[in-house]
Amino acid sequence: MSTLKIVIASTRPGRLGEPIGRWLAERARQQGSFDRVEILDLAAVDLPMFDEPHHPRTGQYVHPHTKAWSAEVDEADALIFVSPEYNGFPPATLFNAVNYLHAEWTGTPLGVLTYGAGGGGARARAQIELLGGYLTMPIARSNFGLANVFGQVADGTFTPVEGNDESAAALVDELATLVRERVLVGEAA
Hints:
The protein is α/β, with parallel strands linked by helices and 189 residues long. It has 7 helices and 7 strands, in the order E-H-E-H-H-E-H-E-H-H-E-E-E-H. The strands form 2 sheets. It has a 5-stranded parallel sheet, sandwiched between helices. Helix 1 (17-31) crosses helix 7. The longest helix has 25 residues, at 164-188.
């Protein structure tokens, strides 16, 4: 059974990430490339600024919020980070959530969907891909951005425009392929 988890990075009031993340999750469910598709909304996860006494590499978590976050991430076969771009970077909430853990990220395929004015969050996407690469996460090549999405969100609903559904489908399919390849490599070892 394969599980895709979509992490909504923005926590600010009025954020666009929540409706974009819900659209992406529904699109992935319809596609059927994964048995389960879940949303991890960092606003609901509500992690404080990193407060573990031990380095994440040790896996010696003491706080219940870290243990719960670890379990959620660890059960994912693939992840998609849905992130805005603020001042050329993803929000601090995403970096904070990533910094809580280490081994849970390793080997888990990563997709990235960014959004923002102009370039669709390309600079934030590059930062997330760099971070994922450091954590030895296979990075999807189909990662994409949504430029000028402000008019696509109304009444809490994201309405895709031409090309959005196709980009989402390509990303989800690629992540499913990366998961299958990971399983085959594990079976061959």
